[in-house]
Amino acid sequence: MQKFTLTINNNKVEVSAEPDTPLLWVLRDFAGLKGTKYGCGVGLCGACTVHIDGNPIRSCSYPVVAVGNQKITTIEATDNEVTQALKHAWIEHNVPQCGYCQPGQIMSATALLESNHSPSEKEIEDYMSGNICRCGTYPRIKAAIQNVSTDLFKEA
Ligand code: FES
Ligand code: FES
Prior knowledge:
This protein has 156 residues and is of the alpha+beta class. It contains 5 helices and 5 strands; from the N terminus they run ββαβββαααα. It has helices at residues 23-30, 81-92, 102-115, 121-128, 138-153; strands spanning 2-8, 11-17, 49-52, 55-58, 71-73. Helix 2 packs across helix 3 (102-115). The protein starts with a strand and ends with a helix. The mean pLDDT is 96.
């Protein structure tokens, strides 16, 4: 076991783990942040998406030793305007069905809107294509993202 000091949602968190422990395990089991979900475990479904220094990564396939001093942001973060706007839009559009995939969807959508304030329909579909939803909420996800893009980033 090795000790790691991680910055998670702007808080310093100390954990002991094997260096190759996936970050998802550390978040859920050691840091108590259960919002990030385990889906496939092999980087294919996007349920475990969190941000590392603002970039979306699959935490099921990201060893804790690789985090270093980078900042981790999870669905529990409360200080991101885009994430908060997306959460409201998710409610407005009744996006979640079983809800399981949705934290990962919102983290990917946040990364999309932070890098592209006004994505086209095709750009949304392409960017979000790595996040699988068994319940088929894709049209609602797209509408919610378009909604936030218009409301948050429209020209003054
Ligand atoms: S659980 Fe990580 S990509 Fe599926
Ligand atoms: S809402 Fe059920 S898997 Fe996406």
